[in-house]
Structures are given as C-alpha cells and as structure tokens.
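Repro:
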Amino acid sequence: MAAIAAAAAFSSLCLARTSVILPRHRLRTLITSSLSTNSTTEFNITFAPPKPKPQHPKPSVSESESSDSPDSELGDQLFIPWIVRGEDGNLKLQMSPPEGYLKAMAIQKTQKKQKKKPKEDKTAANKDKPPVASSAEPKYSKAARRFYNEKFREPPQRLAKVLAAAGVASRRSSEELIFNGKVTVNGSVCNTPQTRVDPARDIIYVNGSRLAKKLPPKVYLALNKPKGYICSAGEKETKSVMSLFDDFMKSWNKKNPGIPKPRLFTVGRLDVGTTGLIIVTNDGEFANKVSHPSSNLTKEYIATISGVVNKRNLFAISEGTVIDGVHCTPDLVELLPPQPDISRPRIRIVVHEGRNHEVRELVKNAALQLHALKRVRIGGFRLPTDLGIGKHVELTAANLRALGWKS
C-alpha cells in the first residue's frame, strides 16, 4: 500500500508539469525508496544517455545567473516517463503524456489572450488638447431598425386622410382645403389630396397652423344612441350624437397630455327615431370594413309593433321587399314572447345588407305600424344590457374581433 501511495504521489507530481528534470542521484533515491517496501512491484525503467557537454567554452556568468540556470544545478538530465493508471486500474509507464492532458493544453493555448488597454498619457501636452468626442453607438442595429420600419412603422398615407385623422376636418372637407391651397407640405403648397406624407417627418401646415407630428391614437367606442339624435354633424337646430361625447373630449387632455384629440364619427347611421347600438371611431379603415356589405356582418333589430301581429304578417316580412331596385330579404324573423312590463308585441329581425330604412320598409310592407325600433347587435358584438341610454363604452380587442376587425 505504501508503494502504491508513493507511486500515486509521484504520478501527481509528474502530471502537474509536461516534463520534470531531476538529477540522476535524486531520481535513483526516489524510485528505490518507493519500491523498497514492496519487492513484488517491478518497473522496467531505462535511462536516457547523459547530455553531451558542449565543446566550446562557456561564457562567464555572474553567480546569481549561474545559480538560477537549471543546467548548472541539475547537471546530467533525463526525462522521466509518465506513470498513469490504465483501464484495468493498475499503474503503468508510458513515454507520451496522457491524451486528456494534451487536449487540455491544446485548448489552453488556443484561447485568445486579452489585450491590455494602453494607459492614458497624462502629460502636460495632452492635457491642453480637447477631449475627443466618442461616437455614440446606436441603441439598435441597422437590421433591427429596418425590420421595425418595414413591419411596424406606418407607411406614408394620403394627405387628405392624414388631415382627417388629425381632426382637421372630414375627408371631403380636407380635400377642399387642399384644392383651395390652404395646405403646405415642407414649405410648398400642395394641391393634390393623394400626395403621400408622413406626419412624423414632413412639415405640414393648415391655414397657417402646423399639424402635430403625432397622430391621435385609434379610438373605438360603442354608444347606446337615444331617440331624436342624428348620426352626422348636422345643423345647429338638430342634435348630433357627437354632442354626447363632449365630456369625453374635455377630459382628453388630462388623460392624454401632449396627444392631439381624435376626430370621431359614426360607423354607418341610424335614423333619428331609431335607438340602440352604434359604433363611433376615428379609424376610417375600420369604419369602411364594418359598414361595407362585403363584410357580411349581420345586424339585429327589435321592432315594437302597435297592434296585433299574426303569422301572415311574419310571413310577409320574411318574403322581403324591394328597396332602391334591389329585393332585400331578412335572415331571421321571430315573434318574441310577451313580457309582463311590455304590452306591445315585439319582433326580432336580423338583416345583413343594412340598406337605408331596410327594417322600416320590411315592417311597412307587412302592413304593420312600427312603434319603436332598436338595434341590439352588430356581428358578434351585442349592446351591453347595463349600458344606459346616451352612454358609451370603449371596445376591447375581443369586441373588435367580434366585429370582424383583425388588425
């Protein structure tokens, strides 16, 4: 056991360095002392021939240098074989270093050494020189900025559309301002509404006032329209649904400081005497998508009838009628069960085209007298039951998806 321990200590000493150089008498003493305790362990060790002495005379060196040189201290030298443990667990001798040790040395040699930063020259001449302004590295790479501009940045839009989105006027009124020379782009009068502009980069003036760089965010609201209100700006004598958003517009600057106010308008229209759900927004693309017949969004109405409703009336409504030269047929006609607090009969009518006065014409063609009409659903979005008359609520992303808007 002592021999094995000595051999292990000796092998660990050898593994610590690539080659160990010892004098011949020291090597003989080390090996004989480690093997004297166990005579059964035998090693076949052959020594290298002594190092030949040079023929030319050595130059004289100082005592300090001669004491540090390994040749003067060790004299005759030899390379000790590597003592390693084999796969069978026994110690053995080999002339080459272990494979794992060679790989570790190769990896260590291939690692790049860190270059030391040059020290600043703090001389009097350099103190007088002004400091060199280091060029600030961009926060994002060019590829990242290009990807953002292509995927997320809004492309340039038509000038009339930008003015309408900024709340200057409606699309048609904005076109009239452009035709009359009231709009300048980058210092030049622009008479073409189709000119592509970017408010963040282009300088736009309308009637001498500069247009804000930031456009107002998209706003989507659902209103429970009361009776007697029209869905356009209208004249002073008539009441517009836009007047129901006065408090919303007054509190806009407090909730959104530094952002221009949106110009709101209704998506489609309801008659003066019709109540219920109507969408209000400042997104023209969204309004066109929801109101266009190609969207195939169904609209549900509740018609309150004065008088008695029989099966013949329901059959007449389901057959449809001709409006503006087009035969319009409803998708669903259903007589609702009577309610204790409602004395008049009610009919659920679902249409998909949404032509002007379509539901009123269907009821009139069935020889019925309409007492009240209310819209309760557009597409997959239904008017909240707890939303009071004249009140509005902001639409969520789920509500917009129910309306068929995927943007």
